Amino acid sequence: MHRNNRLVLFYYAADAISAIVAWTILYVFRKKIIEPGDQPFDTPLEFDVNYAWSLLVIPAFWMLIYWSGGMYQKVLRRYRLQELKETLIASMVGTLIIFFVLLMDDKITSYRDYYQSLTILFCSHFFITLLFRLILTSRTVTLVHKGHIGFNTIIVGGNQKALAMYEEIQGLRNSPGFKFTGFVRVNGQDNLLSKHIPHLGKYDVLKSIITEMSIEEVIIAIESGDHKDLEKIISMLEDTSVNINIIPDTYDILSGSVKLNNIYGIPLIRVNHSIMPAWQLTIKRMIDVTVSGASLLLLSPFLILIACIISFESRGGVFYSQERIGRFGKPFRIFKFRTMSKDAEKDGPQLSSSNDARVTKFGRFLRRTRIDEIPQFWNVLKGEMALVGPRPERQHFIDLITQRAPHYSHLHRVRPGITSWGQVKFGYAENVDQMIQRLKYDILYIENMSIAMDIKILFYTVLIVMKGAGK
């Protein structure tokens, strides 16, 4: 079993044991202290059926809380201060939920009993959970520092700056976890690292090397004169899952751009892939699944009617399927109600225009009301799309866009969506120029992603549907 997966199981087991122990402490406290009240006799302790059921429900509840907060993700990269902060927040949230759902209906003699129960549950759960998690995390951190755990790393650049960085990391008393597999050069002269690690070619082959060598970390070490290539390199890496680190200039350090995660590390700028907190990503996905599933179920009679009208109006299938590019550049097949005549793209990929003769009469209605997009709820359920996110495009048009706007690859950081800020503003793009205009709003959305932003975009999308004002 992979080391990461095995460690995740240890965290699950530790959290389950912690939840059971903390709940048992609360149960004994309630039975022995709260329920007897001022009675002089000693109440016998009985572990009833409700307690037995709680041993299944309570651990599952806590693991759901931790999973929602992203506490089972990247367990090999967790650190002790992170455990303290996240366990504290999760314990506060989970304790309050349990208190209001399970403990508020208890028979009490005074409100002091509530406060005592809440305090006992929070303190016992927090400290026991934190203890187990710190043991696991400390062991992992120690293995990383000793070099027993490492993450495949490639250096972009082989100049003096890259060489100095490599020698500094190799000379550290505690390893930061970089396992160097090679370097790629930016220009023809930077080969100073070739004496230490393999030279893998020029940086334009970076993506294929990442896939072939299972690279997890990329360190960009380029001189000030090569900064013109920095945007191109970062854009190239945006639709991958690697961590991107940049060796800073003195200006970056003075301006406060450089943050250290541990005291033994070297100063690096980490390009942040986390566009939303883990708990918001969980809620976003739960909303996606709930709304999509409910919509397909409740609208099924209406969808059948739409399908019948499409089949009666023109020859061809009811649904239209097409390959699009999704998160991390992975292709998938998108589904829509057919709004064009059969063989509409027999002459190759074409964008639709306002007066496109290929669009059927009923198809125009479907496009104005966005009803043609409803089958994409199935893509959302499959995890290929979200309700809100940049519209997915075909590779043909992505190639045309990236020739003029290389930063288009930023869109592949997230799941594409049925609707988006760009879609609300522009609707269906009629040419590459409009696609590039829409790109600005999609990037702004990604940089400001939140549940509140999604709700606003969904609200305006509903207005468009009700007004039939879609472009």
What does this structure look like?
The protein is an alpha/beta fold. Helices cover 51% and strands 10% of the residues. The chain has a 6-stranded mixed β-sheet with strand order 3-2-1-4-5-6, covered by helices on one side. A two-stranded antiparallel sheet has the order 7-8. A two-stranded parallel ribbon has the order 9-10. Strand 7 (319-325) and strand 8 form a beta hairpin. Helix 1 (3-34) packs across helix 2 (49-68).
Mean of residue pLDDT? 83
What is the count of distinct domains?
A: 3
Radius of gyration from the alpha-carbon trace, in angstroms: 28 Å
The secondary-structure element order is HHHHEHEEHEHEHEHHEEHHEHEHHH
Q: How is the largest sheet built, in terms of strand order?
A: 3-2-1-4-5-6
Number of helices: 16
What is the overall shape?
flat
Strand count: 10
Helix-residue proportion: 40-55%
- Taking pLDDT < 50 over at least 5 consecutive residues as the criterion, the unreliable ranges are 253-258
Q: Main β-sheet, in a few words?
A: 6 strands, mixed
- Give the helix/strand class: alpha/beta
Q: What is the terminal separation in angstroms?
A: 51 Å
Strand content: 5-15%
